[in-house]
Amino acid sequence: MRPLPLFLALCLAGPASAQTCGGSFGGFVDALRQEAIARGHAPDSVTRFFAPVRHDPAVITADRKQGVFQMPFVDFARRLISANRMQKGRQLAKQYDATFERIKREYGISRGVLLAFWAFETDYGAVQGDFNTLNALVTLSHDCRRPELFRPQIFAALELFEKGDFSPARTTGAWAGEIGMVQMLPRDILDNGVDGDGDGHVSLKTSAPDALMSGAKMLSELGWRPNEPWLQEVTLPQGMDWAQTGLRTVKPASEWAGMGVQARHGQIAGDLPASLLLPQGRNGPAFLAYPNFRVYFEWNQSFVYVLTAAYFANRLEGAPVFNAGTPARGLSDTQMKDLQRKLAARGYDVGEIDGILGAGTRAAVQDVQQELGLPADAWPTRDLLNRL
Where does the signal peptide begin and end (predicted)? Predict the structure, then answer.
C-alpha cells in the first residue's frame, strides 16, 4: 500500500482533545468519545460508532514496513507494470468509457491517470485491504508517531457513519485507513466523494463510477490543470548540463527543446513549465515533468511511486516502453542510509534516515556532486559514497 498522503489537519485544542496520543488504549478511546460529543455528535451515535473499536498491532507493523519504495525506478516500474495490468486497464477503459468521458468533460483528466491509480492502489479493485478501517485509524492515532495525520480521519469516518456510508464493524481497507478502489481517506471521501452511478450513496468499495469520479474530483481539488500533460519520456543531447536536472529547476518546455531535449513519443508541450527528471542518473531513463506531475505528490509522497504511476498513465494511452538505458549501479539499503547520514552531517536536510532516495536526498546528492566536480545528475553511486 502507498505511504500516507499529504492530507494534514490540526487536532482541536482544549480539554476534550487533551489526550492526543498514547496512554491506555481504553482511556484514549474514551477521550475520543468525549471529543466527538463536544463536537456536536449525538451521544447515541457516538456510542454505536466506537463500540466495536479495538487496537490492531498489525497496523503498527505495516506502518513500519514500506521497503518497496527503496527500489530504483526501473525495477519498481517493471514490477508494477505487468502485461496483465496493461490488458486489464485497456479492457476497463472500454467498459467504463462513459465514466471516463464524463471525467474528461468535467475535470479535464485523462483516463490513463485514473486507470493507473486504480491499478496500483488496489489492482483495479481486487485488493482493497482487509484491515478494519476504524481500528486502523484509532490505532494509528493512539500511536505517537503521526497522530496529527490520523486523528481527524476518525471524526470524518464518524460523519460518514452518520450518513450511512461507513460501518465501524465492517468497513475495511488499507492499513493507513484508506478506503475503496482508489484508496481515499474518510476526510477526502467527505470532501470529494461523487455519486458516479446515481444510487444516492458514495460507495468507493463497490462502485467503479463512484471511485473514479471521486478520484478525479480529488485530483482536481489538489490542483490538476485540465487537459494538460503530466509526464513525457525524452531523449537527451550530448553535453547536457546535468546540474539543471531535477524538480528544483523549471524551464519552459520550448527552452528544453532548444537545448536538444526531444520527445520519444508525441510533441514537446510548447511553453508549459517543465522539469527534466533522471530517476537513475544521466545513463538511465529521462522524462519531462509538467505541472500536473507535481499534483501526484499530493496523492502520494514517494518519488518512485509517483513517477511510475505517471509513466503507467502514459503507457495506458499508447506511449512506448521506456528506454531503460544503462544506469550506474545504485546503492544498497545499508549504503543509502550511510550516504544519508553523511549528507546530514554536512548540513543537508535529507529527512528520516530510511534508505529511500526521496526528493530531499536527491537534491543533497546533486549539490554534493557539484561540489566534488562530479556529473550532477542526482543519482548516488558507490563512487560518490567513497568520496564522502
Answer: 1-18
Report the distance separating Cα 149 and Cα 136, nearest Å.
Answer: 12
User: Which three cell numbers, joined as nine digits, stand for 274?
Assistant: 517543465
CATH code linked to domain 1-68+134-178: 1.10.8.350
Q: Is 233 exposed, middle or buried (0-12, 13-18, 19+ CB in 10 A)?
A: buried
Report how far residue 366's alpha carbon sits from residue 374's, in angstroms, rounded to the nearest whole number. Answer: 9
All structural domains of the chain with their residue ranges:
1-68+134-178, 231-316, 333-387
Q: What share of the chain is helix, strand, coil (3-state, %, to 5)?
A: 50, 5, 45
* Set of cell numbers at residue 361: 536526498
Q: pLDDT (tens digit, 0 to 9) for every residue of the chain, 388 residues total?
A: 343 332 222 222 333 344 578 999 999 999 999 999 999 999 999 999 999 999 999 999 998 875 556 789 999 999 999 999 999 999 999 999 999 999 999 999 999 999 999 999 999 999 999 999 999 999 999 999 889 999 999 999 999 999 999 999 999 999 999 999 999 999 999 999 999 999 999 999 999 999 999 999 999 999 999 999 999 999 999 989 999 999 999 999 999 999 999 999 889 988 899 999 999 999 999 999 999 999 999 988 889 999 999 999 999 999 999 999 999 999 999 999 999 999 999 999 998 898 989 889 999 999 999 999 999 999 999 999 999 9
Alpha carbon distances (Å) from 121 to 18, 173, 180, 289: 35, 11, 9, 22
Pick from 208, 134, 137, 201: nearest CA to 163: 201
Strand partners, 132: 172
Residue 184 three-state SS: strand
- DSSP letters, 236-276, are --TT--GGG-STT--EEHHHHHHTT-EESSS---TT-EEEE
DSSP SS3 for 80: helix
Contacts of 218 (CB under 8 A, 6+ apart): 184, 188, 191, 192, 299
Other CB atoms within 10 Å distance of the CB of residue 290: 21
Question: What is this structure's pTM?
Answer: 0.89
Q: Yes or no: say if 196 and 212 are a contact pair by the CB < 8 Å rule.
A: yes
